[in-house]
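Dear support,

I submitted the protein below through the web form. The confirmation email said the job was done, but the results page showed an empty box. After a refresh the structure appeared. I'm attaching both so you can tell me whether what I see now is the final result or a partial one.
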Amino acid sequence: MRIAIHIEKFTENFPDEKSFLVQLIGHMVHLSPQTEFILITGKAQGEKIIVEKNITKARVAPVTNNTLVRKAWLNIKLPVLLKKYNADIFISDEYCSLKTKIPQLLLITDHRVLIQQRSIERKHTSYKRIPPKFLKKAKTVICFSDFVKKEIENKYGKDINDLKMIPVAVEEIFIPLDETKKNEIKQDLTAGSEYFIYSGALNAKECLDLIKAFSIFKKMQQSNMKLVLADRITSSSKKLIESLKTYKYRDAVIIKNVASNHELANLLGAAYASVLPSNDGSGIQILQAIRCGAPIISVNSAIAYEIAGNSALFFKENDYSDMTAQMMQIYKDEDLRKDLIEKAKKFAMNNNIDRSAKLLWHVIEDALK
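What the results page shows now:
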């Protein structure tokens, strides 16, 4: 069997929603040594992604946003490529080819790609809308939450051949730390102070409400609590970094350049609480924090509640005063914090990357029947 896979912008150990797919597929490849996998990557991508003997990497020019070029890629070049490698099935997180006859699986990691582009907030315009024709063409559409599954069923259910839900999962490196390790990390990062952590895009729009909420928290508490903003620093981070130079509590805010998920797991494991001011669309950030034993303070959303349930505190979207209230609550009530950590353990137990990989493999087998 030959399985061709294209995950846009393959990344290595990078804390975003794509890393879940890389880990999921990596586990599936490892569990299926007799199967040949063809990873379709950009010419400068995927050098160290999923290094297994049963992997062949087909490097192609990146798919552009130009409508005509993209259409030519999907309906002419991609079918030729799949035929060249004699692929039995094609898996993608972004598109389907309307011209190939082999079965195709379409992965939906984020419900925002189902929304009409004009209704997506400006900060989310990087999310390309998945056309209904791709949903119809796919032999099976796979999503990673019950909420997204219901959204798809309500809007496109009658036009989809098959729809499956596989639970979102994270790597086993996301685990609680012992007190010695926590203290080492805090000593190195904050000179021993407790800290709230945000593990998401380091840009001014995403972080603005959190910084406002933290300002009120610091003003009211006068504590030595720190705020750590953790992600890989990119060119889009410059505006945020520049704005912090005039921020009143700038000495209490630490921007941490995160190089790997292993480093992120340590930062989450030592945190007093994880604060998530925006919905990342997949719930990965919440699940990573839960598995590390970090209490969750999250924007209220269907996906967030599905993953964290009553093991988290929720605040209203775009309401930084409500966010502050939840930060104050968990800071003042240590019993509440401990209770949230204990409840989170039950949710974490249900999460397993190997289980999710095996479920994906069963979907592939069913699609080939």
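Response: this is the final, complete result; the empty box was a page-load delay. DSSP finds 13 helices and 13 strands in the chain.
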